[in-house]
Specification:
Blueprint (H helix, E strand, L loop, with lengths): L3 E6 L6 H14 L4 E5 L21 H5 L5 H5 L3 E3 L2 E4 L15 H9 L5 E5 L7 H9 L2 E6 L3 H15 L7 E7 L8 H8 L4 E5 L6 H5 L7 H18 L12
Parallel strand pairs: 1-5, 1-6, 2-4, 2-5, 6-7, 7-8
Antiparallel strand pairs: 3-4
């Protein structure tokens, strides 16, 4: 069963964390026991109002010594808005000490506790934790925007890392606007060599979410896009035949 899904950004500020948390919350509302792993390597829980007392740093020594027990992970998991959350690092300088196997170790230790595991994999391909998220995420979703800089950077990541490693996945275009000044859906798919994509419409005042410590699920066009991703994940989990959105050869 492919119950581990990772979201990886084409660049900073494309909304990867927002999307991962929104997906996790909506999956949870559909009756699935869900864990959100914040593995971007960045400090903070931007859209969670609860005080976070623990972090991945609390189990880093267990990971390094290959002595991670399920109880070690459960001890640092917090409950929020109907889902479980494994907080990310507290000290961003520690990100370089995580390995390309760490997400696998974490998931293997607690996967029987959950129906779905959603991972915020960040956007950095230079660190083991982010590569580990891509390596062991069974269902991969790559998040981009219409911004030229983002598309150019992600195209380079695709050509140098994702395609050679055969890390296929599905494209998510966030903050999408029907504007003649931007690449449209079809142009982005062609540019990045994806067969299809899932669109999340642009939500004005999205920055307010950080102040409110909440996701953008209350906005219909964002909710609709997230629901499309959730349905795709649940189809994959239930082994239903679905259209694959993979790199073109």
């Amino acid at each position: 069963m492919s119950k581990t899904s990772v979201f990886f950004g084409g660049d900073n500020q494309v909304g990867t964390t927002m999307i991962a948390q929104s997906v996790a919350e909506l999956v949870g509302k559909k009756g699935e026991k869900t864990l959100l792993i914040l593995a971007s390597g960045q400090y903070g829980t931007d859209y969670i109002s609860n005080k976070v007392n623990f972090s991945l740093d609390d189990i880093r020594s267990n990971l390094a010594s290959n002595n991670l027990l399920s109880g070690d992970v459960r001890d640092i998991v917090m409950e929020y808005n109907g889902i479980s959350v494994l907080p990310g690092v507290k000290n961003i300088s520690t990100i370089k000490y995580y390995s390309e196997e760490d997400i696998d170790k974490i998931v293997n230790s607690i996967e029987n506790d959950y129906d779905q595991i959603i991972i915020d994999g960040g956007c950095n391909v230079q660190y083991g934790l982010n590569i580990s998220s891509l390596k062991y995420g069974k269902n991969r979703y790559y998040v981009v925007t219409q911004q030229e800089k983002c598309l150019r950077r992600f195209e380079n990541i695709c050509n140098t890392i994702l395609k050679p490693l055969e890390y296929s996945g599905k494209l998510v275009i966030n903050k999408y606007m029907n504007n003649m000044g931007f690449y449209n859906k079809k142009q982005i798919e062609t540019k990045l060599s994806f067969n299809e994509s899932i669109i999340l419409g642009y939500v004005e005042y999205g920055w307010v979410a950080e102040q409110d410590k909440s996701t953008l699920l209350k906005y219909p066009k964002f909710h609709e896009g997230i629901n499309n991703i959730v349905n795709d994940i649940l189809d994959l989990t239930n082994d239903k035949p679905v259209k694959k959105f993979i790199f073109k050869r």
